[in-house]
Write a structure and sequence with these properties.
mainly alpha; Serine Threonine Protein Phosphatase 5, Tetratricopeptide repeat; two-stranded antiparallel sheet; 15 helices
Length: 412
């Protein structure tokens, strides 16, 4: 595999003209050709713009690239397809007649068929860009950008870039770098690993255990420079924070415990120590919100959110059909519509989580208790129905939830 220098030349322009999701205004900057190389890394604003651009690259790695396009445009539901749907506890509501065979393929881990098969009736393979699940180039663009940031941030001459600020920005760059590596390891196993900037040499795949160990060491060297939270609530839970970095390291240690079993006790102890740090040292930055506030939680940017992929409806952004909500959606203004939801959880799985006859607020608030064990189109999941406009005719368009990756409960 080749990591090409052209990655830098193309994406330096992206970083300059883009920002993190829903940035408060578009950036007014000089032409990208005038801001590359030594002309660029001069001020704190340069670093901020580059950092925001890298979050945008990471978002484009996990969802559709144009968040302002209409639904159905270059969809890529990576997080639900690579996560919940592959757990084996979901089923297609076949009585609707959509022919969504990808749900069974993912649940049964039949990835070759998922990538290659042209489903009858509707070409889900093309609509959801199944081929992208075989491609890692977008993650390597994030990594290449993060490597450049780690190399250049220490030398930024702006007096406003204090040592503490440089450490914080370095922590964010390293966080995004290792999020990208972890997502690739989960999907591909062994991957090529590098941290040098402007890298162009061919690389072989590195064993995933070694990759994860390198990632943890990289995080350990930088995460304590990150902020626990931000004064501006706009950035809470959607830019890297120390709690999100800790959650990432905890998860990587748990993966190592599963694959490097002779050393699993070492990894378990590290998970406990990291969790204790996040709970005992966050200074009130995080808290578990009452379950009745679940809409606030899944909208994002709350004290319970550690990291997630956001959309900002104020700027015309939407996940379209690239989030979990699209698979389980129902319309509260028309709850008996015959065309949705496309999938449900199996009855056995729901009974294991929520035994029948036992009081559970999650069951009452997140689902329709009357249909929760039906495993058919009557299944209703309200958990992610975060509405920007509850009176909108288009219920899919009014969803305003963040795709949460880490929340404070993950630390416990």
């Amino acid at each position: 595999m080749y990591i090409m220098k052209q990655i830098f030349y193309f994406f330096i322009a992206v970083f300059i003209v883009t920002s993190v999701t829903g940035c408060k205004k578009f950036l007014n900057v000089d032409p990208p050709s005038d801001l590359s190389g030594n002309n660029f890394w001069q001020t704190r604003q340069d670093v901020e713009n580059f950092t925001n651009g890298n979050y945008e690259l990471f978002r484009q790695s996990t969802t559709r690239p144009n968040m302002q396009a209409g639904a159905g445009t270059a969809e890529y539901p990576y997080l639900p397809f690579a996560g919940e749907l592959r757990g084996g506890m979901v089923k297609e509501n076949t009585e609707l007649g959509w022919g969504r065979g990808y749900i069974a393929d993912l649940a049964n881990n039949n990835i070759r068929r998922f990538v290659d098969f042209i489903y009858t009736g509707n070409n889900w393979r093309a609509l959801f860009n199944h081929v992208r699940f075989t491609q890692w180039d977008r993650y390597y663009r994030c990594i290449a950008a993060a490597n450049i940031a780690v190399d250049r941030i220490p030398g930024v001459p702006d007096p406003a870039m204090t040592p503490a600020l440089k450490a914080a920005y370095l922590g964010e760059a390293v966080f995004i770098r290792n999020m990208a590596y972890f997502f690739m390891v989960r999907q591909f196993g062994d991957v090529a690993y590098y941290t040098q900037p402007y890298f162009s040499d061919p690389l072989k795949r590195m064993p995933m255990i070694e990759v994860l160990k390198n990632c943890i060491a990289d995080m350990k060297a930088h995460y304590k420079g990150m902020a626990w939270t931000y004064d501006d609530p706009f950035y809470v839970g959607i830019r890297g924070m120390r709690g999100g970095a800790i959650a990432l390291m905890m998860e990587m240690n748990m993966w190592l415990a599963g694959f490097d079993t002779p050393n699993r006790e070492i990894y378990f102890k590290e998970v406990i120590a990291l969790g204790d740090e996040a709970r005992n040292e966050n200074g009130g930055a995080y808290e578990l919100l009452p379950i009745e506030n679940y809409i606030e939680i899944f909208k994002g940017r709350s004290k319970e959110n550690l990291f997630g992929i956001p959309q900002n409806r104020n700027y015309g952004e939407r996940f379209g059909w690239s989030d979990f909500f699209d698979q389980v959606k129902y319309d509260p203004l028309n709850p008996t519509t015959a065309s949705i939801p496309y999938m449900s959880y199996t009855a056995d799985f729901m009974r294991a989580l929520y035994p029948e006859g036992e009081a559970d607020q999650r069951l009452q608030l997140w689902f329709n208790p009357a249909t929760v064990y039906n495993a058919n189109r009557t299944f209703q999941m309200k958990k992610f129905l975060v509405t920007a406009d509850p009176n909108s005719i288009d219920f899919n368009d009014r969803n305003d939830a963040t795709q949460c990756i880490y929340r404070y409960p993950d630390i416990f």
